[in-house]
From TrEMBL:
Pfam families: AAA_33. PANTHER family: SLL8004 PROTEIN (PTHR39206:SF1). InterPro entries: P-loop_NTPase. It comes from the Bacteria. It comes from Tannerella sp. oral taxon BU063 isolate Cell 6/7/9. This is Zeta toxin.
Length: 191
């Protein structure tokens, strides 16, 4: 059975950093589709340019279609701020994929903004503050309203501090384990 891993969370949550350890070492996944990394490959000094980002997204979706058609295990990275990958996940499941979602949460949008600023200061890619804040909220809302119900397995972790803390995990059948009910309830009702 092929696996599709969704590495998700707001900008600055540590998705890419975690992916380079979790995917190959813990999950044995060698295919990682990440539009930010594709954009860097297209234009290393201008990866934040809208035209570059659009082309990177186009390449990302083409690669995802290729991997699904070949029945390959792979991972992709997303903020979940868009509803666009929901249909992709469902199509993959129809082809026999087991979809696992890992969500890296930060406890405030301010922390997300700060982490993006730190990343830029270290030479990483920028995301505007307004976009970080919009995606922070939309990602949490879509996580609960759209993505948790369709994923076979999901896990939410608090990556605000080190070491990260598992908040909750669950399955498509509704079975779930909540380790931090205060945070989980806050997220489930986040506006």
């Amino acid at each position: 059975m092929p696996y599709l891993y969704i590495i998700s969370g707001c900008n600055g949550a540590g998705k890419t950093t975690a992916s380079y350890t979790i995917l190959p070492e813990m999950l044995g996944c060698k295919e990682f589709v990440n539009s930010d990394e594709i954009a860097k490959g297209l234009s290393p000094f201008n990866a934040d340019n809208i035209a570059v980002a659009v082309e990177a997204s186009r390449i990302m979706y083409r690669r995802i279609r290729e991997l699904v058609a070949a029945n390959k295990t792979f991972a992709l990275e997303t903020t979940l701020a868009s509803r666009s990958i929901a249909k992709l996940l469902q199509n993959a499941q129809e082809k026999g994929y087991y979809v696992t979602l890992l969500y890296f949460w930060l406890n405030t949008p301010d922390l997300a903004v700060e982490r993006v600023r730190n990343r830029v200061a270290s030479g990483g890619h920028n995301v505007t503050e307004s976009t970080v804040r919009r995606r922070y909220t939309a990602g949490i809302q879509n996580l609960f309203q759209l993505y948790i119900p369709i994923c076979d397995y999901w896990m939410i972790t608090d990556n605000s501090l080190s070491p990260m803390e598992v908040i909750a995990k669950g399955f498509k059948n509704g079975k779930r384990e909540i380790y931090n009910p205060v945070v989980y309830n806050k997220l489930e009702t986040y506006e």
